[in-house]
Specification:
12 helices, alpha/beta, 485 residues
Length: 485
């Protein structure tokens, strides 16, 4: 690739397009309507790290940290790092059973509306055909454009295709291999798999040295190549792009991406964490966590079916489908969307436990999806005694929801009251819908239960809207559909 020519083409697109590379111009961005309606997407962490399948997807970094569990495991299982390094897993990553159509069928059955494969993780291996580096899935490992196959399969089933890039962190990700005799050694040049492997002091200080102009330009070109070749509808960034050195390049990328979307006639979005983008120029994302209250702006949670890892490992600690459904409901009631990750095996098959969880979520959505898809938030997100802890990395603890925990969504003349834990006695009390409520002054014309034939008995008192059922039993949340006037 002629990188200088590509950089000039990026600048020409920005110069001639509606969006410029400054926050004032980018603040004119609007979140696509399709995205706000979709509510539920699938994230996919799949790459070379699925071969060792030990601890989590940070194995390539941690295997070079002397004394770590990964370091010890690597020596015991594969030998000394100088003889067998991370690059030597690439030929073992064959994806011999990968079938994009089978994935698409499963994700469609799960009820997901948009699908987001990781195009490049911190390890620097591109899961797509690229002119930037030879270390990609088309030329090595599977020797297939697996990202292109996914795009065709997902869009063939009317699911929106998206991508994520975690390339930024590659600046330091493999640096510890330089601290002892390993296969990571100088000289390292642009295009090399391990380039640049810059120091990460104390194994923790991930802000040691700012990326160089050469690295930042390489990062920008990789991102724009993904945009040009695969036309994703969402481009997700992981956390490290919020460091100061990336700011000018983030603005360039956003302007380029948004202008290209106009040129192609598609509606797109960028996901970011922390304060990487100015508020209103992209969609904020909360990693493994959510907000405690309703937000006036659209947002997203990204989390995984497993609590301990984004990628497949034999020891994954899985959430239950009901936990995830409750989180989905809570997030949607607060004007958010849930991006749920699965981690396939190295051979391209999706683990049975991941499948089971996705299909159980899909079964619930088949019955109750009208209370999720295309809905909006109500005056209040919900009620009940259980407090949802706010912030990232807070979803490792199971939330002890009760029959008093209720969430609301609305669509047209329908208000949906979703009971997160259905009471055994069949009596539901909704305080927000009581007589003389500050939140609701309308008339309730009728009430039905999604997925059940029973007609509930109900009355409004000054204490609550009281709904009674005799036959409804469910371990999963139950949705009441209220026709209001």
């Amino acid at each position: 690739m002629d990188t200088n020519a590509y950089l000039k083409a990026i600048n020409r697109t920005i110069a001639s397009g509606r969006f410029k590379d400054n926050w004032e111009s980018l603040s004119e961005y609007e979140v696509p309507a399709w995205y706000k309606k979709a509510k539920f997407g699938i994230f996919i962490h799949w790459g070379v790290y699925a071969v060792p399948a030990f601890k989590n997807e940070w194995y390539p970094r941690n295997m070079y940290i002397q004394g770590s569990e990964e370091y010890k495991h690597h020596i015991e299982t594969y030998g000394e790092h100088k003889d067998f390094g991370y690059k030597d897993f690439i030929p073992m990553f064959k994806a011999e059973k990968f079938n994009a159509d089978e994935w698409a069928e499963l994700f469609q059955q799960s009820g997901a509306k948009y699908i987001m494969p990781v195009a490049e993780h911190h390890d620097g291996f591109q899961m797509y055909k690229s002119d930037v580096s030879h270390f990609n899935a088309y030329e090595m490992g599977p020797k297939r454009d697996v990202l292109g196959e996914m795009k065709a399969a997902f869009e063939g089933r009317d699911m929106t295709f998206c991508v994520s890039s975690h390339r930024a962190e590659h600046w330091f990700f493999l640096s510890h291999g330089k601290e002892f005799e390993s296969d990571i050694k100088e000289p390292l040049e642009r295009g090399d798999f391990y380039w640049p492997s810059m120091p990460e002091p104390d194994h923790q200080d991930l802000y040691g040295s700012p990326p160089s102009q050469e690295y930042l330009e390489d990062w920008l070109i990789r991102c724009c190549e993904l945009v040009d070749e695969y036309k994703p509808n969402i481009f997700y960034f992981d956390w490290w792009i919020h460091t100061a050195a990336f700011k000018p390049y983030l603005k360039k990328f956003a302007a380029y991406y948004y202008n290209k979307a106009i040129e192609w006639g598609i509606e797109v979005a960028i996901n970011y964490k922390h304060e990487a983008f100015h508020f209103g120029t992209a969609v904020p994302d909360v990693e493994r966590g959510q907000f405690a209250a309703l937000k006036p702006y659209f947002w997203q949670t990204d989390t995984a079916v497993a609590k301990n890892s984004w990628s497949y490992t034999p020891g994954n600690d899985y959430k239950t489908s009901i936990e995830i459904i409750c989180d989905l409901i809570d997030i949607v009631s607060k004007n958010g969307s849930l991006l749920l990750n699965v981690g396939p095996h190295a051979d391209g098959t999706i683990p049975e436990e991941d499948k089971r969880i996705l299909l159980e979520i899909g079964d619930w959505l088949k019955m109750n999806g009208e209370a999720i898809y295309d809905t909006s938030f109500w005056r209040t997100f919900g009620e009940g005694p259980t407090l949802v802890e706010e912030g990232q990395f807070t979803d490792g603890k199971t939330k002890a929801f009760t029959s008093e925990d209720i969430r609301f969504t609305v669509k047209g003349s329908r208000l949906y009251a979703i009971v997160l834990v259905y009471p055994e006695n069949g009596v539901v009390k909704i305080k927000a819908l009581r007589e003389k409520s500050h939140d609701f002054h309308g008339m309730i014309k009728d009430i039905s239960i999604l997925g059940f034939d029973e007609q509930p008995v109900w009355e409004r008192t000054e204490e609550a809207l009281i709904i009674k059922t005799n036959k409804v039993q469910s371990a999963a949340p139950v949705v009441f559909s209220l026709n209001i006037d």
